[in-house]
Amino acid sequence: MTGNPQDSTPIRLEVNGEAREALVPSRLLLVDYLRQELRLTGTHTGCDDARCGACTVRVDGAPVKSCMMLARQADGRAVETVEALGTADRLSVLQRAFRRRHGLQCGYCTPGMLNSAQALLESNSEPDEAGVRAALVGNLCRCTGYQNIVASVLDAAAELRGDAPPVADESRPATDGDKWVGRSTERVQDTRLLTGQGRYVADLADADTLHAAILRSPHAHARIRRIDTSAARAMPGVVQVLTGAEAAEFSHPLPPTIDIGMRMNKSHAIAVDKVRYHGEPVAAVAAIDPYIAEDALAKIVVDYEVLEPVVDIDQALADDAPRLYEDWPDNRCLEYQFSDGPLDQAFAEAAHTVVAEIPHHRYTAVPMEGRVALAHYWSSEGRLTLRLSTQNPHQCRTLLAQTLDLPEARIEVICKDVGGGFGLKLQVDGEVIPCLLSMRTGRPVLWAETREENLLSGIHARDYRLTMEGAFDNDGRILGLRTHLLGNCGCDGTNRAAGAGQLLVGAFYFPGNYKVPAYSADVVGVVSNKAPYGAYRGYGKDIANHGIERFMNIAARQLGMDANELRRRNLVQPDEFPYEILTGPIYDSGDYPELLAMAEAGVDLAAFRKRQAEARAAGRYLGVGFAMMLEPAGGAVPNSIFNAYETATVRMMPQGDFLLLTGMQDIGQGVETTLAQVVADEFGVTPDRINVVFGDTHGVPYGLGAWSSRGASFGVSAAVEAARKLARRMRAIGARMMECDTDAVTLRDGAVQRTDGAASLAFRDLGNAVSLWPGPHGIVPEGEEPNLEATATWTNPVVRWVPNDAGSLSIYATHPSGCFAVIVEVDTETGATRVDRVYAAHDCGTVINPTIVNGQLHGGCVQGLGAVLGEELRYDEQGHLLNKGFWDYLIPQAPDVPNIEIGHLVCPSPNTPLGTKGMGEGGPVGIPAAVMNAVEDALSPLDVQLSELPLSPERVLAAIDAARSQGAPS
């Protein structure tokens, strides 16, 4: 591989205790030698610059980034990968601790984490928390928030010393007898992920697989005059080169993902005649290895006519702005207005009016595994098999069928382990390219997105400007609210990704947790020469929450009130649920005042104020900030791929165990485990009797996948209803076999049991009787299906797609809620902000698995901290993205964040069978405003007012200087 066979080096090394000899190309990386030559696929790649640590192995006992080490540099050395730590039936102490403590979610970063942690434990038997966090610098995690990882390493150290590991301090509701819902069971997928046996897409490529590389535009806006691919085609090892014009001969433009009043553009997976953002694909190569594929890109010559770019909102709105799409009259892709209630009267009678400008910067999800696609087109059968790292396999199949003009039934999308998603893996654009290459070559083609590609071309989020105007009475109660939202949707918010819709969600939910009797929204979305616009763990609810929670703090300062007192006076009250707001959403259940009280108690607000005063006297600036959180969950968006149902099939096998077939997708959030728990309760068995099957469009019902925290609403509800249908049939069959009434039997302990104890029929005996001998005739009662399988489709019971005269709709099934409290310290000399404490009071209805719920909140809160304190996609005036790797796109590391404390309030939803609501997005939705409010509180003696994000040290110092220039105390 990698080109010239003469440029190779013989090496001898030891890998996981086994002697190895090889002749390796001089530029072959150690990570590729391990993965491709030895098939040790537990070692992953997640960046281009040795920053993420997913590739960490131990070389002579020390942790090493194998993506930065040549294979020939390992000559004469001992290399250990995650596969050496333990096996499925004999996990190491460290692996057991990770499984027990929920130290992993998607699992993609886990092998690297384990190797770094193992090296620490071998050198230090008594590490403290700070030492563990320091040892994990260079190992990035996007899912867990590091808290459970650190706890896992400390537990393992204690066990290795012979000390009893500390008991997990989990907040968990009381369980109902022997019910599994409410229990913190260990996840079923963790053993394979901890032992390097994950099934991520790139792990599944075989020796015949071609590797795709994509040539991307260096310009944000340009016409493609000519592309010369002749030199690339002539290179040995290059099998196919494809331009946009060639691809358009046998494929269609990308179909829309959402169409609810937006202006629709035409776009292709590979640009045909014009590029509209820095990084847009202009050609693609398939070669026998990734090194040759990358070499070939350098041989392609593109003649561009560079055009003036449109980068920001003001440029896009200018009358003389260049048009991204020549057939559009301007650059507006979305316009929406809503108004209801006596708004003019509210402002006319207001004792106080408050106006606030609330901008928000652009950032992105950066899951540790980028987008990956392995396509194989079987020309003899006209069949496409596509292995994807995606959140929604079925919708991907539908969109690909439309793009590739293939019968959908001949496309199979398979998706097993996914290295994080967070909304970024809902798009289908780059994934088309390996399909096109495979259709041309007839061979499997792998495309694995690099980190630079991910930052350039993976969907971006936020990037908006909000104006809020509020009318208040003398008591601080809201009389009316006007909102004006301008959003930068990049080059596309409808086809490559569905981001334009999140501006509408923001407009619908700006009232937040508060009673707003009169309200209006004015929304404009524009296109620009930035990357496509989509979801990142929020989809508009983040826009709404940040806006209203910043506004409440700004209003409180202008009204001379305590911010939390202002919140209390306006919160929806517990006895008012279900509560319908003017825009149409129906809040199902909750206790918002109690959540606020929990958050204040969680940080001991009175004691903090005393400590804050003492710190200020000593010249230190501490602050506390609060933000209520509303997380509309389980979206049901009309005229989009984000629709209103989920289907599940439950099947009892003749031997008495069960299959659950679900359209949900596990992306690290624990679907395999939680769905087994809820179904186990319906049959009175243990969860290990339930095999959850997902991620294969030929094997499971058409479902909508993982987004909008819909697992606990749609996914769980469909599974429960299917299980209940089958359980009822099993009781009927069992009662007939035991010659009693159906009401006289129950399902318990793997059997149909008479409630009077007179008889019992094991599930295995029932299964054999129906499926084998004597068979269903005479066994299954008349009127019952003669099988042991049931399917149910669950839909949102409160959805309303027909708008009233004002334009209101109801598209979310449930409304999880919370209140976040954050304590910070700000260094006024450097501008640096340190987060000392985070407390989350949270209500997601019935809690299925407390450990999994807490883990989701930990990770989400840390993503929120990263967003507000440092993550930013920076563009120059020419539309070039400036930060294209983890050295300058900075996500939090283990030492950067505190432990997250969580308090649960359980207000079950009346809209779901188990009272579940969803909870995957609350952290990123609520944390940013809480941090901004905390920093302003810390700097209140200086009269600092914050606006621009993120709160980098430079921006904080600039805000301090601006306040001092206005006469604030020094």
TrEMBL record:
<dbReference type="InterPro" id="IPR002888">
    <property type="entry name" value="2Fe-2S-bd"/>
</dbReference>
<keyword id="KW-0560">Oxidoreductase</keyword>
<keyword id="KW-0408">Iron</keyword>
<dbReference type="InterPro" id="IPR000674">
    <property type="entry name" value="Ald_Oxase/Xan_DH_a/b"/>
</dbReference>
<dbReference type="Pfam" id="PF01799">
    <property type="entry name" value="Fer2_2"/>
</dbReference>
<dbReference type="InterPro" id="IPR037165">
    <property type="entry name" value="AldOxase/xan_DH_Mopterin-bd_sf"/>
</dbReference>
<dbReference type="InterPro" id="IPR001041">
    <property type="entry name" value="2Fe-2S_ferredoxin-type"/>
</dbReference>
<dbReference type="Pfam" id="PF02738">
    <property type="entry name" value="MoCoBD_1"/>
</dbReference>
<keyword id="KW-0500">Molybdenum</keyword>
<dbReference type="InterPro" id="IPR046867">
    <property type="entry name" value="AldOxase/xan_DH_MoCoBD2"/>
</dbReference>
<dbReference type="InterPro" id="IPR036884">
    <property type="entry name" value="2Fe-2S-bd_dom_sf"/>
</dbReference>
<dbReference type="Pfam" id="PF00111">
    <property type="entry name" value="Fer2"/>
</dbReference>
<keyword id="KW-0479">Metal-binding</keyword>
<dbReference type="InterPro" id="IPR012675">
    <property type="entry name" value="Beta-grasp_dom_sf"/>
</dbReference>
<dbReference type="InterPro" id="IPR036010">
    <property type="entry name" value="2Fe-2S_ferredoxin-like_sf"/>
</dbReference>
<dbReference type="InterPro" id="IPR008274">
    <property type="entry name" value="AldOxase/xan_DH_MoCoBD1"/>
</dbReference>
<comment type="similarity">
    <text>Belongs to the xanthine dehydrogenase family.</text>
</comment>
<dbReference type="Pfam" id="PF20256">
    <property type="entry name" value="MoCoBD_2"/>
</dbReference>
<protein>
    <submittedName>
        <fullName>Molybdopterin-dependent oxidoreductase</fullName>
    </submittedName>
</protein>
<dbReference type="InterPro" id="IPR016208">
    <property type="entry name" value="Ald_Oxase/xanthine_DH-like"/>
</dbReference>
<dbReference type="InterPro" id="IPR006058">
    <property type="entry name" value="2Fe2S_fd_BS"/>
</dbReference>
<dbReference type="Pfam" id="PF01315">
    <property type="entry name" value="Ald_Xan_dh_C"/>
</dbReference>
<feature type="domain" description="2Fe-2S ferredoxin-type">
    <location>
        <begin position="9"/>
        <end position="85"/>
    </location>
</feature>
<dbReference type="InterPro" id="IPR036856">
    <property type="entry name" value="Ald_Oxase/Xan_DH_a/b_sf"/>
</dbReference>
